[in-house]
Each structure stands twice: as structure tokens, then as C-alpha cells.
Amino acid sequence: MTNFGGKGANQCVAAAKLGGRTILVARVGDDLWGDQYIANLKTEKVETKYIQKTADATSGIAQITVSDTGDNQIVVVAGANEYLNVEDLDEARHDISGAGVLVLQLETSPEVAIKALQLCRGISILNAAPALDEYDRRLLTLPTIFCVNETEASVFTGLPVTSLAEAKLAAQDLIKKGCNSVVLTLGDKGALYLEKSSPESVYHTSPSVNCIDSTGAGDAFVGAFAFFLANYKNLSIEKMIESACYIAADSVTRPGTQKSFSGREILEKCLKAVFLTR
Length: 278
Prior knowledge:
By secondary structure, the chain is an alpha/beta fold. 39% of the residues lie in helices and 21% in strands. A hairpin with a 5-residue loop joins strand 8 and strand 9 (191-195). The protein is globular, with a radius of gyration of 17 Å. The chain starts with 6 loop residues before the first helix and ends in a 5-residue tail after the last helix.
């Protein structure tokens, strides 16, 4: 099957489906896929005024293989994503600085992420994926929250991350390297949070579900987490992590990426399940 994807777009759509007001800064190719993607984002109620069509470039494409257990393997061809540059942020400067939550990834240039982080006046989340063996230290020090999965945490720290105990050590190492706070997602085992100001990590398990396709689950988590940070400011970080885990777990019960993401109906179930009130 063919689905719309890409980490930034997925996270934007995930937040929008829950009811968030989202804007995407991106580039697509000057091709059929680019036109279809912009149309899809508009259908998902994502603001597209900062999405540029790039001449002589293809839209980014990923080939994803999903196993019988729902695990996935992905090969990415970046295409127009490689052309997103610091100058592209100038037009969006006001919206970036005024955003309640800014979410970034590393499927585009790290220099773009750093510039956007410098412009941000609200909460910023860097989902540091794909992970980098060599990187500018500002990628760790500038974001409010540095978010990685087990594999990515291992690349950034050089430590194994195969258990909750090892995940805690990796999160501590990232704090030592300069992160203000760390969210480390652990797939079906949940996620943990650690911040510089507290020695104790917050950990929450993920609901047990029948996994059909885990593709995009991490993006569902990040999008939901950003949504809760922007719209449920009275919640504790532990409840936000728990809620994001719930939304991510729900997404793997259906095939595909954006079309599997939870909407307002699931949000209401989530709020009841974790005993939340707005």
C-alpha cells in the first residue's frame, strides 16, 4: 500500500487529529507526490502556507517492510527534504517564535533544526531521528526536550539500550551531555522521562494491544505528547507520558501511518482511561 508519511508530517497530523492547531514548515518535490501531499495535509487540517515545492527534486519517499509481528524496517530517500534551509525559516519566523510547542526532526538539515530552536520562545521538542554519530552539541543543549528511541539513544550515547535499566543510564548520560530533559521511548514497553533538575526518572508502561503495524508509532507518540504539552498544561509530565503512550499504542492496532493515528474519539477514551480532566 502507499501512504503519506515523513516524521515531521506524521507528527503534525497526529497532533492535528487530536484537535491541535498545527503548522508544517517543509519542502516537497515539484511532482505528483508533492501536489498530493499538500492536498492531504489540508484534508488533515494542517496549515500548509510554509510548504514549498522544490524544482528538479522528488518528494521524499520511504520504502517500509512490515513483519508478521508488526515490526518494521525502513529505507528513506530524502528527496526535497535535503533542500530545506535556514532561509526557508525566515518567512515562518513569527509562527516559530510564537508557537506553544515547536517539534523538529533530523530528516532535514541539523542546521535548520538549530536555527528553529534558536527562534523558538515556547517549548521545543527535538525528535533526534535519524540519529547522528557526529553532531553539533547544540542539538542536545537547545531543545527543551530531547526525544529518542532505544536505537537512537544508543547512537548518541554509545551505550547499549536493551532494558529499562540501560535506558535510565542512557537518559542520565544524555543529561550529562547537556540535554535539559530527555524522553526515551521504549516501543511496547512504554517511555521514560528524565530532566536535569531531578535525579528521579518518570516511567510509564504502554497499554498491551494487538500490534498490526508499528510504523509511525513513535511519531504518534511525539505528536500526542506535543498536543498535550500545548493544550493540557495542567497535567503532570507523568500523565502526559502516559497519555502519549496510550495514543501511540492505539495507532499500532491499524495498518498504515497517518490513517492509523487516533482522533478525538480515541482522545476521549484516553482521557477516561488515565483519569484525566482538562
